[in-house]
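During the no-cost extension, the postdoctoral fellow (Dr. R.K.) reprocessed legacy sequence entries with the updated structure-token encoder. One reprocessed record is reproduced below for audit purposes.
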Amino acid sequence: MTRRAERLAVIGLLALLAGCNDNSDVDGDGTVSRAERAAEMRRDGYLAMQPGRWRMNFTFTDIEVPRLGEGEKANIKAELAKGASGLSCLSEQDAAKPGPDFFGGEGAEDCSYNTFDIAGNRVNMSLVCGMGDLGKAEMKLDGTIGDSDFQFDTDLAVQVPMAGKIKLKGAMTGKYEGECRGDE
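Re-encoded structure tokens follow.
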């Protein structure tokens, strides 16, 4: 290969890599708005989720809390997983463009996306949610999503007033269970 051909190949590769830097926060304000999320989903051919009843489960495998013993850490992991897991009803309208509250888990409120990148069935998102008296939670979800299930690796940081920042790693799964029953 000639030097010119090598240079052209490198330029082509750099252009391709630059195109891979897909950021749905188009206006750069640090939050992915509903319109920006919808545009990202349209652009990447998102397969809408089934509207109806969804069961979400969190499991945590690792926890970082200063000054706590292993038994206390295990209790915190179990309590947070139990408290965040639960049922949710996804409306017909939201199935095409699920909001951040849907992925925030039980007890999360006023969630907003910081990033939301989707390509086919691969999703990478980060969101911030209020947790009532517990403070706020920052969550990164990375994994796959389909019309009737999803599986994410989860990084969660909870800012608790009395204990400071608690960091957890684990997984979040969701499974479609049929029509909403009104008890979600």
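Confidence is low (pLDDT under 50) at residues 2-22. The chain has one domain: 34-178. The remaining legacy entries will be reprocessed before the final report is submitted.
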